[in-house]
């Protein structure tokens, strides 16, 4: 009998310890994580009807709380919703939060430690609780221009940055959606709208524009900038090096070959210097470089440009992590060197790589948040430019810039040329299997000698002709818009 009592007592103690531990975890260790969970309905309901802070662009709210009903005093409203949906996300009762509405929940909801005195003041004065407002670095004119440059019904993304500061000037993605349809207080309407929006081809209601709908894409020939930096950094190559440039390169250990780009003039030379290889976007010279240097050299340089890092942590947006794969055989390495195979990147990653080259090899932290202001409008945080890392040396960045200007002035990126301005650029065409379609890229900056703006464009699932029309020429329009301000 004593043994039975002892066993029951031990079981009761163990159960009590388990329950106590779970409660302690929920209340202490896991509280922040649980409160931040976008599907935590209790956290949402607790603040759903509050006067949430505004998200602001150039002094005007793109998301704000407006008067609601007697049962719910405030309703979340999004202005120019499709234009900013990939950034603001939505704040809803039934489907949680996404985008900045989720990542800045404490500030917008008025729950951050920086707003403690404001909460106390509001409570003692009997005022409605109010959150902080958040002003973004976006330029509304550039945001609208970039959005309109992607045709409706087309999947694509554009990222525009200041390479010297890391500030995001425009960041758009299509297809987009109207967050008001999900933020509505009408639960039945929200449910129907959510289901209908999810039927749009290519849509993701959790999208962020660091990568179109969160996807990672093969970067194609824009990855050759990584190869070039790795080659120069190795000491085995210099600006005068002659590279093998066969029309096709047999892939080691296989019966396949890697062809040169058919749309340029690669095949007029059996060897090529870096300038020509980048101007014409030849494949075989860069595959040869990767086979010579080895996987580790290319992977290390990719890492220095930010592959493998979540830039979204700085942007306060979720983001897929760009990848240069490991454990490649020689054939896979050759294909990876031209941005194919399993190399995957987001537009933000390619934009950050390009911005580092523009900024003398120094990569700045990307920044989307300009200021956060308390309800009384005092500034409680303000962004300042910060160095993230050194991606390459000043001399190597300057040399790559010179070659990129050649790609625009006399190469296949000529559509990005701006009269009277030196533009640096690189195109990319990533094949999508045997479909005949591609992901078409452009990345570059201007002016080349004093960069003010870096632009990265990707248009998904298009033929070569369509891709060429929607990338370099559209980059030109963005360059002109910035430089003519």
TrEMBL record:
Pfam family, one: PBP_dimer_2
Protein name: Penicillin-binding protein 2
GO BP annotations, alphabetical order: cell wall organization
Residue ranges of domain Penicillin binding protein A dimerisation in the record: 52-134
Highest rank taxon of the organism: Bacteria
Gene Ontology cellular component terms for the protein in this record: plasma membrane
InterPro entries noted in UniProt: Beta-lactam/transpept, Beta-lactam/transpept-like, PBPA_dimer, PCN-bd_Tpept
GO molecular function: penicillin binding; peptidoglycan L,D-transpeptidase activity
Domain Penicillin-binding protein transpeptidase, chain residue ranges per copy: 156-479
Coiled coil residues, start to end: none
